[in-house]
Write a structure and sequence with these properties.
With about 260 residues, this protein is an alpha/beta fold. The chain contains eight helices and eleven strands. Helix 1 runs antiparallel to helix 2, helix 3 crosses helix 8 and helix 7 crosses helix 8. The mean pLDDT is about 95.
């Protein structure tokens, strides 16, 4: 911490926020997030000088300019609650990013997305055409995005797609997994008399719905809740959990270590 602070001080930076965490006081992995103000003209010089500090402590580091708005692509199937919530927050300026693209395997949401002035690309996916559809998806994305958000995209991305895609992907789903997998999870949950329902936002990797978790939330329910009521509460949770995860990623608050995350909020 002293070496990093000294390096920033010599560069003329003003530290405005500092967070740190260690997995173990003795020999653990140390995580740090510093937010600072610095003249943009001095950023290149800082990158060079900081590299020597990083080498000294065997650091992995990333310098991100908060003034550069990240480009985000949204992917959706038929459920619209997460998609429209993110677009609404973006239009209100609550998400500091650009959202130029929505991709869907259905054409149902085209009119809704048009109201936000965002490009809508319909890429149908069938089992026999999945590989071709994913190749087309890579072409549409073109490596031009900083984040892909699966805002209730109900298709499984293949290991081949994930290997060729270099952009982080965030997914959202109900938190009943693995207990109530497959169709109608809220029907299954009500039949089991669950008392908690929730939502999970995580990064996507080859382990289906098991990537590093960014954010989760729950709500208590009772035996009186119908299937429709459970689903409505679940949708509310999915909206807020996904929005928080996306915002924290955009603000570079999430550090990934193995299959865990450190989230400095």
């Amino acid at each position: 911490m002293a070496a990093v602070s000294h390096c920033l001080d010599e560069a003329g930076a003003n530290i405005i926020q500092s967070d740190q965490y260690s997995t173990d006081p003795e020999g653990g992995r140390f995580f740090m997030r510093l937010q600072f103000q610095l003249d943009s003209a001095a950023l290149d010089a800082l990158t060079t000088s900081f590299s020597s500090v990083a080498d000294r402590f065997r650091m992995e580091f990333n310098l991100s300019h908060s003034g550069r708005r990240k480009r985000v692509a949204l992917m959706v199937s038929r459920p619209d609650h997460c998609l429209l919530d993110l677009l609404w927050r973006w239009r209100r300026g609550e998400l500091d990013c650009d959202i130029p693209l929505v991709v869907s395997n259905h054409d149902d949401r085209r009119a809704d997305v048009a109201l936000f002035g965002v490009r809508y690309v319909h890429l149908p996916v069938e089992p026999s055409t999945k590989a071709a559809a994913e190749r087309r998806l890579l072409e549409v994305l073109g490596g031009e995005y900083d984040l892909i958000v699966l805002a209730r995209y109900m298709q499984i991305l293949s290991p081949d797609f994930l290997a060729r895609n270099e952009t982080p992907i965030i997914n959202i789903h109900h938190s009943f997994l693995p207990a109530f997998a497959g169709a109608d999870p809220y029907v299954q949950a009500r039949e089991r008399g669950v008392k908690l329902i929730g939502a999970t936002a995580h990064y996507v990797n080859e382990d289906l719905d098991a990537g590093p978790i960014i954010e989760q939330d729950t709500a208590r329910v009772t035996h009186r809740a119908s299937v429709d009521a459970l689903a409505r509460i679940g949708r509310d949770l999915e909206r807020t959990v996904l929005a928080r995860a996306v915002q924290w990623h955009l603000e570079d608050r999430v550090l990934v270590h193995g299959n865990r995350t450190v989230v400095f909020t």
